[in-house]
Amino acid sequence: MTNPPSQCDRPTPGTTDQPAATLHMLCGKIAAGKSTLAAELARQPGRVLIAEDEWLSTLFADQMQSVADYVRVSQKLRDVMGPHVAMLLRSGLSVVLDFPANTPDFRRWMREIIDAANARHVLHYLDQADDVCIARLRARNRAGAHQFAASDAQFHQINAAFVPPGPEEGFDVVSHKTDTL
């Protein structure tokens, strides 16, 4: 799937030809296709990809044995990444932030980045059914190509906290829906 540059990545009328910096965020259940879409979005010129799973697996793999461990170390990573991402946006670089925008708390953190950088944003929402995500997760686990292999039980535990974005949050949401594995 190839997407044309988002309206948010086009120059602002009456300004230079430099596109406005945009924070691209991803919301979707485990194995909904967030990282695949993130990689595709990051192929556009002027965008950099920052993937939570890569950072966590490099920095904290030996400390992550449970969902509670993930919560603890992901907070540490967000504490460091928030100001860094805001700096990249302020410098004019668009960022594809492959961190799960799956709860209001995570999205508040992302909103703080947008506000600190005075940047544009797009929240990409991948609306996938649980059975599609679980089938993709199992296939991903068998392939061994992903940094983390979540079990079915962890899928359900993590997704119990999943909250789709609501209009009251004020995000510019683009919905994506595919049922293919």
Structure notes:
The protein is α/β, with parallel strands linked by helices and 181 residues long. The chain has one domain: Rossmann fold (3-Layer(aba) Sandwich). The chain is 43% helix and 17% strand. It has 6 helices and 5 strands, in the order βαβααβαβααβ. The chain has a 5-stranded parallel β-sheet with strand order 2-3-1-4-5, sandwiched between helices. The longest helix is centred in the middle third of the chain and has 24 residues, at 67-90. It is globular, with a radius of gyration of 16 Å.
Topology summary:
Elements (H helix, E strand, L loop, with lengths): L21 E7 L5 H9 L4 E5 H9 L6 H24 L3 E7 L3 H14 L2 E7 L3 H14 L8 H8 L13 E4 L5
Parallel strand pairs: 1-3, 1-4, 2-3, 4-5
Instruction: Please report the total strand number as a whole number.
Output: 5
Total number of domains:
1
Largest sheet: 5 strands, parallel
Given the C-alpha coordinates, what overall shape results? globular
Order of helices and strands: EHEHHEHEHHE
Question: Which range does the strand content fall in?
Answer: 15-25%
Structural class: alpha/beta
* CATH fold-level assignment: Rossmann fold
